[in-house]
Structure to design on (150 residues):
């Protein structure tokens, strides 16, 4: 009888490194997805209205400035922007409900509306006039932002 000896040399042990790497990658992806979901949930709780009003007003102010730069200052070029600014000015207290009872805020909002009312009552007919109105509007905005935006 021939004795066959079992192979005593152990097979090289497979490394668990691949398994740990895959587990790490799956965990990292799940963590990233969870973080994005958490950030979106927090963002959804914020009211977008105040920022929206400010962005719309900034866009219209920029358009007025562009009209001056382009030397296109006819009433048909500027009045739509002044009207849009005046319309959004009516929403300032609604956009910032925590400030609507603050006397300084209501004064700034009233001054802003007064500036726009004066511009609409006597619309600027040339670029110098549009530039002057734009400066007055920016000063009214800047005064409020100085007090409340920090």
């Amino acid at each position: 009888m021939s004795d066959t000896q079992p192979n005593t040399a152990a097979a090289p042990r497979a490394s668990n490194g691949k398994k740990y790497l895959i587990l790490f990658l799956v965990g990292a992806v799940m963590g990233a997805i969870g973080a994005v979901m958490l950030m979106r949930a927090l963002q959804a709780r914020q009211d977008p209205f105040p920022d929206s009003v400010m962005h719309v007003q900034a866009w219209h102010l920029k358009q007025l400035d562009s009209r001056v730069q382009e030397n296109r200052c006819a009433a048909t070029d500027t009045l739509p922007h002044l009207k849009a600014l005046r319309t959004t000015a009516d929403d300032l207290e609604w956009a910032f409900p925590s400030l609507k009872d603050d006397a300084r805020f209501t004064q700034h909002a009233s001054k802003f509306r007064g500036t726009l009312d004066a511009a609409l009552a006597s619309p600027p007919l040339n670029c110098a006039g549009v530039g002057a109105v734009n400066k007055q509007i920016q000063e009214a905005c800047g005064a409020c932002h100085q007090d409340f935006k920090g």
In short: DSSP finds six helices and no strands in the chain.
